[in-house]
Amino acid sequence: MTERIDNWLVTGAGGMLGRDLVAVLGADPARRFTAATRAELDLTDPAALLAAVTGHDVVINAAAWTNVDGAETHEDEATAVNGTGVENLARACAQASARLVHVSTDYVFPGNADRPYPEDAPTAPINAYGRSKLVGEQAVTRLLPETGYVVRTAWLYGTHGRNFVNTMLRLAAEREHLTVVDDQLGQPTWSHALASRLVELGDAARSGAAPAGIYHGTASGQTTWFGLARAVFELSGLDPSRVRPTTSENYPLPAPRPAYSVLGHDRWRSAGLAPMPDWHEMLGGALAGRGLVPAT
Fold it and tell me: What average pLDDT does the segment 29-37 reach?
């Protein structure tokens, strides 16, 4: 008798994380998966979602409204995708008996803590984007209490798309000195490493090893944007003294940012998985993978 092969669906497959998820799943010839971009699968269309989810065992949702500043003036539109859209997807997964791994954000927290936020810490978003994502989280945990997984991530960077690390590398070639804020703490997380962890969680969910609920998918350790920028320079063979510190008040943005975005990782042990590596180690691996620094 041939062993049954799980069938996966990746939503938001055209984004930075989505493309890494496709790469991770595609590296295993024993896996079957469907990759759907936001243009191909609209989270605001319940009928289309049910049709797409049916026949899949695990759904990883990487589709989202990601324009943090734009959400301040378009909160209804952001919530339609990040909140109501995720509720639609959770309902489809419930009807199709599929497990859902949903990607959320540290922005559901107020950012005023002085120690890592545990998975069950009270939420209190300080901007529209965080509020929209919290609506989605609540829908998953409400509609899929036994088969829904919320994975909060933060400070994500990767090969594809716009992100802080790519911006630093580009500006390093254009400017002699860069000024970067040094009063926000977080955990820079490589999107490819997160993609691998999401697939591991999906496997653990399928085997019954991982309890449903909230997990924090960020690198270990912590640093500031200034610290991250200096590390990017150093690991790329550039002079880190070219990066100079400043404060957030010198770079005002429409959406307020949490000053403290450090997340705790205790929940992974319940799934039989260790926390993700330290951010500096992770960054070194990411840059070596691009050929920007020698691989070790």
Answer: 94
